[in-house]
Amino acid sequence: MEIKKDILWRVYLSFLGIVALSLLVIGKAVYIQQVQGDHWKGLSDSLHLEYRSMDADRGTIYSEDGSMLSTSIPYFDIRIDFMADGLREQEGKRFKENIDSLSIELSRLFGDKTAAGYKQLLETGYRKKDRYFLLKRKISFEQYQALRQLPLVRQGRNRSGFIMEDMEKRLTPFGLLANRTIGLARSYTDKDQKTVTQNVGLEKTYDSLLRGISGKRLIRRISGGAFIPVEGSEIEPVNGKDIITTLDVNIQDITQTALMNMVVANEALEGCAIVMEVATGKIKAMANLGRMPDGSYFESDNFALKTSEPGSTIKLVTLLSVLEDKYVTISDTININNGTWVLNRRNIRDAERSPKSVLTIKEAFEHSSNVAMAKLAYQYYSKKPAQFIKHYEDLHLTKRSGIDLNEEFSPLVKHPSRTNWHMQTLPSMGFGYEVMLSPLQLLMVYNAVANDGRLMKPYLVTRVEKDGAILREFEPVILNKQICSNETLEQLKECLEAVCTQGTAKSVFRDALYLAAGKTGTTRVNDGKFKYADGAYQASFVGYFPAGRPKYSCIVVIKNKPHAAKYFGGAVAAPVFKEIADRLYAEPVANPSEYLYAANTASSRDTWTGSRQELKQVLHALGLPLKDSSTAAEWGKVNYQDNQAVLTNLSINEHTVPDVTGMGLRDALHLLESMQMKVTVKGRGKVANQSLAAGMTFKKGQTISLELNKN
After folding, report:
1. What's this model's pTM, rounded to 2 decimal places?
2. SS in 3 state form for 12-41?
3. pLDDT tens per residue across span 559-592
4. CATH number belonging to domain 52-243
5. 683: left (phi > 0), else alpha (psi -120 to 50), else beta?
């Protein structure tokens, strides 16, 4: 009996303990809920809620004429929260009533699934109670706008469950055009799975202005580790500012096309071309092309800003130095020893042998004599080399140009006070070696000559805008008001013009309607990948046009493959320069004859051009003797030879400008307009001059100006 009581007592005691513990747990729960509830809810929210940044709309980069060069386009990921109250209330009545019509419209909008396919997809997500269901990735803004008007979706997020996540993608509307200069947005995913964007070009230089100020968005963690935004919690970002550049889309297209034609034809390794406005230093075009492993070409690097040994184009600096220091004039003579000079057991040779040993300084420059320039540098500066280097400093060749691109290379100009200066440095610098300069820096010097001695800072951005309002403007900057005396300047101009009329570029500019001025350059490449002996050459040409009243300066630099068939500057780079100059000169000009050598009136007197049949009829009616050397071509040309009219075919190519000099206006208009060219006319009579040179390529819709005379 006592045992039974003892057992019951223990049972009751255990029961009371359990009851007391239960009451304690219940009490603690009530205390936590009622007294500490706000604290723990806040802590819970802090574990499941977080702020994430919202990128601002990046500003747009424009050309000077307002064309978009780089802009951001929005795109959207579409998700659905199938646990949204609006979809679940009344046992999913709203979802069931709209799913058929929604599926049909989604199929019409995206066209990638049937209506039945979309219905099955939506029902699966609804059944699984997916809170972050991905419906569509990266839809366009136009699709986004259409989607918002579809059944169910238009009822709003709370009722439809549709979540629109907006993002942006950087787009360059003109594709490859100036792509490296404008800048590439290179995105990659880091180790934390975050998207990181790395910019170059103008996109990098002006990144702080373009990107704006990021906003914030509150997001909530849901099952499965996904996050969804909390509606109404956004802190709106401040959009970026717009950049207006100096680039001209048309000039950039002309420049890049001309460069592309040559690098492809010559299978070059890389090339660049820059066009600068003489008076201001504005960069109107900057093209860079590098050969890819598959043989195609892409703007993979900004070669215009990379340094290399310039070769003969630096001879302008050598000539400027000796002229400005009054050591010589361009009419003085120099013995080039038949194109070979041995200096301290080093043999310096001219690339092409001169017809005579004694040349004037002008002749030595126009024929690009290495011996002459090496001799001039050594003879007059070997005892005072710092004086020679001072000219480099005055031309700002010892420092970066300061253009609005962060990736510009620093030049390497040796100084006699440093250990890398040796006996051969000075003569080598005289004709383009042992000095490292970028194409842009060389262009600055030639542009200064064209600009009557004013050295301009090159620049790419004219102003910064926000919503059309100008926030900041950039004006032309003069780095040196006068690089040399007027006397020296006139001699430099004369020599540069002689290169194009008598020297190494004579054959290239023989038929040009304008007078160009410039200098060829051919350099053995020694860049780490290639050694001097490997047979890789860099071809260059730099100058300005029209020489009488220069509007643009331009440089072309092309690195050829080893042992290329063509590698001289006059054969590779100068033709690119001329193609660019031809096209720009042919743009609408107020007075085309302003830059011509002279009106070619003699040829128009003695030549008749027009319909071949009509020419024969006229000559027959006049009873004039005719030698018919034509075939069945539509157009012909009559020239007088030995008092006899000779009729020949006029060659017409649909891709090049025809020669209409000697034609009557009616025939010229018929021919040119049939080729979809726009024609402007000045004067009366036959065509005496045409602004677009015969044989040059043209674009449909391009304007050609004709000058007529009564002869």
Report:
1. 0.68
2. HHHHHHHHHHHHHHHHHHHHHHHCCHHHHH
3. 999 999 899 999 999 999 999 999 898 765 434 4
4. 3.90.1310.10
5. left
